[in-house]
Amino acid sequence: MDLVQLDPTAFVADQELIRVLKERSEPVNCEQDRELFKQGGDPIGVYIFHRGDVTLSMTSPNGTLLMSMAAAPSSLLGLPGIIGNVGYSLSASARKGAEVSFLHRDEFMHMMLTEPSVSVAILKVLAAEVRTARQALTNA
Fold first, then answer.
1. Which helix (H) or strand (E) holds 18?
2. Which residue of 11, 40, 47, 90 has the lowest C-beta tally within 10 Å?
3. What's the rounded Cα separation, in Å, for the pair 49 and 62?
4. In angstroms, rounded to a whole number, what is the distance separating the alpha carbons of residues 138 and 140?
């Protein structure tokens, strides 16, 4: 089976949203390679990828690698898990030196409920992810 190919720009948010989220986030220590989250893990927050190298991957239930790709800078990682309150659908790993920040689930959900412009921008990123996933299935 060939690996599923997704467009990494589907995870990218506009710069104004990145700025607003970064203001409320905390930096993630990436002095060493680091797993940000694991597929199926409890969604604890959203990761904002600024620069460096972050890899997104997905495996089947039997452990077969289905997808692996480099994330694009300004990507929001972990949105479907947080919004749907389900386990992360992908795994994400940052390489040493990557710049990543983290916004805890409670702060993220508060923003979604109190700042309509943030909610609309987040929904645009999610919609892009859905379109990209559907396109990848069409091409599989």
1. helix 15-23
2. 40
3. 29
4. 6
